[in-house]
Amino acid sequence: MSTLQLTGVTRRFGGLTAVDDVTMTIEPGEIVGLIGPNGAGKTTIVNLVTGVFKPSTGTIRFDGRRIDGRKPHQISRLGVARTYQVVQPFPDMTVLENVMAPATFAARAPGVQAARTAAMECLEFVGLAPSQGLLASELTLAGRKRLELAKSLAMHPKVLLLDEVNAGLNPAEIDTALELIRAISARGVTIVIIEHLMKVVLSLCSRILVLHHGALIAEGSPQAITRDERVIRAYLGDRYADRTTAAGGANGHG
Amino acid sequence: MIRLVLGVAVVGGAAAVPLVADNYLLRLGTMLAMYAVLAQSWNIIGGYAGYPSFATAAFFGLGAYAGALLQGAGAPMPLAWAFACVVAAAFAALLGSAILHLKGHYFAIASLVVAEVLLEITTSWTSLTGGGMGLNLPILRIPVDAQARLFYWSMLALAVASFVMAWLVARGRIGFALRCIKQNEDAAAMVGIDTTFTKVVAFVLSALFVGGAGAMYASWVFYIEPPDVYAVLTSVKPIVMTLLGGAGTLFGPIIGAVLFLIMEETVWRTFLSVHAAVLGLIIVALIFFLPHGVLGLVKRRRPAAPTAGHGSAGQEPANRGGGA
Ligand SMILES: Nc1ncnc2c1ncn2[C@@H]1O[C@H](COP(=O)(O)OP(=O)(O)O)[C@@H](O)[C@H]1O
Ligand SMILES: [Mg+2]
Question: Do A129 and B309 touch (CB under 8 A)?
């Protein structure tokens, strides 16, 4: 059974169709890349899956169960976790408390002590244990991104939606983050990663979905995607695509 | 353990006050206990959850009338008080479900309007409430001194109950959930908190004992009228007290209630006519100059604890900002 299954999902905001008839499936254990230019609708898909928005039409299933229409807290308790493109810590709580919150509420730790133990494990996993006593607002951006990861891990997710976790990080920090994501995947967590950096997507993902103006325009292996004409057009503009086509470099892909 | 002993000693000492105090002091003591109930209750929705509620007067007035009507129908006083608690709590559940999706100013204004609406309804529903003429309660057939003691002890018991409630909230899952909601409601939902339900529970808890306090107040003064029990000031005062003492802390509301009563009895008697304006200025000053209340001045931030390992994991979430 697919971990996530979106069927004909459309979401409109007034006259704007942010997500347009998207059908996609994510299989257990995959690392799937979701790419597309700014405004393509990637974050909106995350918001639809996590219950922040309801689809205008279409259905979303998680482990076979319909989840569209459910509230965010219900979906997160089922095991769907996400990180935010713009980090969302509880600023006046300590790093440890920030992670104890999902351990307490989403993963339903039986008590404060259990929640703390679970939270500490997640902090150690992402390398934030030394900062456990700091306020979340005192962390650097890289630290806050890792806190987001630790928070989502503390939910014991089955699937993790990473919304541009690497944006704003320097190359060394990105390498650390990549290791982390691989380690999370190795624990059996299914991962959907939204990324701008092709290098990251190409090195991590077994499969890539490309979104453009809200619609899914291509899907395939990293190699196939980088040769797909529509993807090149969407990213680099028509002229570039025409040139590469003329040179015989591009290949249609369904 | 030490804290429990200390708590029992304080309550015991407060309960023994009638042995030495005259009726004027007892009246002040009763007021103080009532203020503590209102402030402690407001702190749950306003301090912990961060929703600036102006509904205290609505709960208070509703409780006052619910209790007065039941007493008028012949029910014993304690039953009337308990009934008032239930009425206020039930009303808060309905009201909360309707307005807690609003944020910030919008919520504040919506909650402010409620007392006005109840005041209008109470005033026009003459057959039930006596309308603008007010409502007389049955006279207690015990000596004046005994009455003063009775109401002092009753209000003190209600204040203790409010404190215990606030303590349970602060150290429990719900207090943790409320602090998450206050700091980032979207993220709170995303970490698995049922934000709507949690906020409604907080609103109900913030109404429960306020309803009881209204009914006790009615029994105490024997006569209530709409503008008295639905006064806007009843909503504003607990906010000032809580901000003064320290919002989102366990002892802040009590400290604030003491400071407020002292100021009210000394300074403001002379400013009675500008009362509301003075309170408004104080709120603004508090927000700007004393954002964490008196307790915030005392309680310096703990040193950052950059130590690893489980053993040194430091404080429980419940204890932070809990004044403990
Ligand atoms: N809450 C919203 N209200 C109105 N428009 C929105 C909302 N969220 C997203 N959009 C619009 O939907 C489109 C897709 O946005 P988004 O999903 O954030 O894109 P991406 O994450 O791919 O950059 C954009 O045009 C954006 O302006
Ligand atoms: Mg985005």
Answer: yes
pLDDT at B268: 65
DSSP secondary structure letter of residue A158: S
d(CA B282, CA B277): 9
Residue B308 resides in a domain: no
Q: Using the atom order of ligand 1, give the atom closest to the CA of residue A44.
A: 17
Choose, out of B101, B174, B180, B191, the residue to mutate when testing the contact with A (most A CBs < 10 Å). Answer: B191
Torsion B247-B249-B253-B259 (CA) sign: negative
Ligand 1: residues whose CB is within 6 Å?
Answer: A 13, 16, 18, 36, 38-44
Distance CA B154, CA A159 (A): 54
ipTM of the prediction = 0.86
First to last CA, chain A: 23
**A198/A234 Cα distance (integer angstroms):** 14
Q: Per the domain annotation, does B264 fall within a domain?
A: no
What is the Cα–Cα distance from B63 to B209, expressed in whole angstroms? 9
Q: Compare CB distances from A91 to B176, B183, B316 and report the shortest one's residue.
A: B183
Report if residue B120 sits inside a domain. Answer: yes
Structural domain that includes position B39: 17-230
pTM of the predicted model over 0.90: no
Domain presence at residue B82: yes
* Planar angle of CA B51, A76, A169, nearest 5 degrees: 90
Question: How many domains does chain B divide into?
Answer: 1
Summarize pLDDT for A69-102 with one digit per residue, the tens.
Answer: 999 999 999 999 999 988 999 999 999 999 999 9
